[in-house]
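[agent] plan:
  1. take the single chain provided in the ticket
  2. run structure prediction with default settings
  3. attach structure tokens to the ticket
  4. add a short note for the reviewer (M.T.)
[agent] executing step 1
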Amino acid sequence: MNRRSLPGPEEAVLRFLAGDREAFGDIVRQWEGRVYNLALRFLGNREDAQDVTQETFLSAFRWLKSLRDPGSFRTWLYRVALNHCRARLRAARPELSLDEPSADAERGGAPDPLQAVLQRAAGDPVEARDLVRKALMGLSEEHRQAVILKEYLGLSLEEVAQVMDCPLSTAKSRLYHGLRGMHRRLVRLGAGS
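[agent] step 2 finished; step 3 output follows
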């Protein structure tokens, strides 16, 4: 059987807006993994990420008609997903608190914690991923969003600003402070020891 490649997101969006409801299936197939990864990194929980992914596409199906520029579909979809992530965090905030490690974990002359995590990854990738996840989850929502969108999803800073609905300078600042916060948290979590 000759399978044609999936259409680009703009083409699928245009087909959907023209009344082809099957085009939405193409959109879901193309973007489901990306939305799930965004939600998983933001929430840190697979079940919540699956729920948010479903909620995102239900909202997208309902509100896609309001999209004026099919070329901005990616940033629009990520914004919808982040809104669902934020709502889930607000509903479950007490469950997301992390224990603060002791202050003596941060000491002068410690090796770069990011390098330590990379070195650990060779021996215990699960532990390394857990440290990075804890550091990421310890950031404020805005800083975590910026880091996930730029570093994990590969969006440009301009796209990060669009998704976060903020000026470019604010997106840059949130990314900088998010990465800096992750660095500090990795030190506190013992990645440098």
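[agent] step 4 note for reviewer: Confidence is low (pLDDT under 50) at residues 1-6, 94-111.
[agent] ticket updated
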